[in-house]
From TrEMBL:
Bias (Pro residues) ranges: 39-50
Source species, domain of life: Bacteria
Compositional bias of kind Basic and acidic residues: 21-34
Comp. bias regions, Low complexity: 1-20, 51-84
Chain spans, region Disordered: 1-113
Protein name: Biotin transporter BioY
Amino acid sequence: MDVTSDATAGRTAATLALADTRTDCPDEAGRPDGGRPATAPPTPRTPPDAPTTAVASGAPATSATSAASSASATSAASSASGVADPVEPSQAGPRVCGSPAEPAQRQSRQPRPVVTELRLSAFGPHRSAVFPLGPLTLFAGPSGSGKSQALAAYEALAVLASGATLEEAFPDPRARIPDRAVPDAQRRRGFRLGCTVDGPAGPVRLDLAVQAEPTLRIVGERLSQDGQILLATALRDPGRRSVQAAWLTGGAIGVTRAPLPDDRLGTALLPLRVAGSTAGQRKVLTAAEQVVVALRAVFPCDPRPDRMRAAVPPGEGRLLGDCTNLADVLRRTRSECGTRHAMLAQAARTGCAGPVEGLGVRTPAGGGPVAAVLDRGPGRPATELARLGAGELRFLALALVLLTGPGVLAMDPAAELLSARQALTVLADGFDRGLDPRQNAELLRLALLSCGRGHIRLVAAVGEATATAARDLPGVAMVDLKA
């Protein structure tokens, strides 16, 4: 492993001085390096502490025209000077209303690592956008306002934290390039995103700059806490498929430098690279592990009723993201999770048409595919789920997700921490798609119940009808976007 220690930096610097990754981050026009030459190294300095301020309830929304005008001005300045000062996430953004994302008095005592803020500095239609995330956060807005893009950014960070490559996290990276992005002299364009993870170690920031054109690669990553940079990477040689990384070591060494792959999240690789023998290394490991644990505990869910009607072979009983194996999961919950299965049956009485006494499963005598049924009560024939409407199937699947946990969902949470110390985050784009008001109200009730206990969080995109009903509910944080 090509690792060298920078002893001189440790002896002469009073504070940690790492490469400023903003010089290799896409600016507001989507240029990965802010207009600088590809080989120009970033200026080593200790960056000022500039924490992002969440948009407060009742703050005015920034119009799309104003955002576009600001972005055009920034791009023009970049082209004229050749050096741009990338805009950090600021208060400019959508209106956020409802309960606070995380009360300040709880942030320093957060028992489970959770993502409390999503930043889209330059991502799709979003520029300098800051989204505070609470236990139950709903994105609302007209078509094209960026609801799906925001959830896609969150999901991509989760995929990267699990060790996946950029191609796996961004299968269509050009769709994430900011609108009207102008390439630099090397014809490069990209995007920027990040998040804040709160937990036992306190708030930790992760910021990422990705080059989408001409090749997909990470050109800058920064992990910081309380204004101190713990890890920074920068693209030094475009001809090599690696970035130069530097992380805090402490003691006489100060900073450790080493190349890291340019297609994977460096933060997720730190536990394999850092020994943890010094106080500085332990601080880096604690912050990195907190971010990885929070991001890996994510379950993207989009039930597909057209694929949920057929009987399925018995398996592990872990629900897939499209919920096509719902019958097999109901078979498992009925035998292993009696209390939660009963709660799901109770919810079905509200969300399904006709009388419902319970949820059952039919299995052929000689084995084979299993089919779930609604028990209609004495003297009434049971109804197979295959005969239910699309809205009823989506309702049952989403209710099951909200009432269960990682052990019943097809996901791979971090093994470094007990499940009781992790908070599952459900991502649901089109959460209320195909549902009627009664079903929406019941799902919101279940979400508030589960999210209030602290072990499940929900980040979802909803339509205006659901948003209107949820705005006055205590415990729901609404993010209102504008096209």
